[in-house]
Amino acid sequence: MNAFIFDVDGTLAETEELHRTAFNQAFAEAGLGWNWDEALYGELLKVSGGKERLHRYIETLGPDAPELPLPAAELVPKLHARKTVFYGEGVTGGALKLRPGIANLVAEAKRRGVRLAIATTTTRENVDALLTATLGTIADFEVFACGDMAKAKKPAPDIYHLALRELDLPAAACLAFEDSENGLRAAKAAGLRCVVTPALYTRGEDFSAADLVADDLTSFEPIFALLGERRSA
Ligand code: XBP
Ligand code: MG
User: Which residue of the set 7, 158, 179, 211 is catalytic?
Assistant: First the structure.
């Protein structure tokens, strides 16, 4: 038995612009006067996890910034919960589509009996919304390792270790799919081979450790060949 383990944001779909606008909607609703433009968000994306990203941003505000309406420890979860609502509304409203080749790769994996798992920094809620809006179901995937299920987020390997435990498979029987250097490092630290499809916010990052780098996943024979390689060894 073997499995594909998919990252979500940037890999299954180009989601980060919707995340960014959802953050800005939450800031506006809270009257914070914050606005994350693309350049700033590109920097902040080096921090995995929306809540961790918010904490990092607050740390950069400096002593002259207006006082926060709540202590950061209280404000961040509230902002992130509202952001997740706004993001979910965008997803169910049809704002996102899967990246090229993803739907066919999922269908072909099912046909070949390759099991499917998710290992992502985002929330389970966001994963279910995306898969339901694009594939019409979450049922193709049997394992969902998401967000706070792992204490340490990517590039730590924790979320991939959780996915492997839930699959009850060794890393050698699996193949990870990522879009970012953080995600690639997490997959490699978990002993996984990893296919990288760079996304809008991650192009230009260091993917030298990847086992395959492709613009997209439309040609899937090299992917199944890579999955099969270690098994025959
Ligand atoms: C990318 C992330 C997430 C998203 C925002 O996750 O780092 O934090 O940017 O989603 P992935 P949340 O591992 O799928 O690439 O605000 O729910 O964290
Ligand atoms: Mg990603």
Answer: 7
Residues 127-161 have pLDDT tens digits of 999 999 999 999 999 999 999 999 999 999 999 99
Q: Is the pLDDT of residue 89 over 70?
A: yes
Cis peptide before 155 (omega within 30 of 0): yes
pTM above 0.85, yes or no: yes
* Known active-site residue 158: no
Separation CA 10–CA 54 (nearest Å): 19
Q: Is the CB of 181 under 6 A from ligand 1?
A: no
Instruction: Judge if the beta carbon of residue 211 lies within 6 A of ligand 1.
Output: no
Do residues 111 and 124 lie in contact, with contact meaning Cβ atoms separated by under 8 Å? no
User: Cβ(179)–Cβ(199) under 8 Å?
Assistant: yes
Specify which residues 98 forms β-bridges with.
13
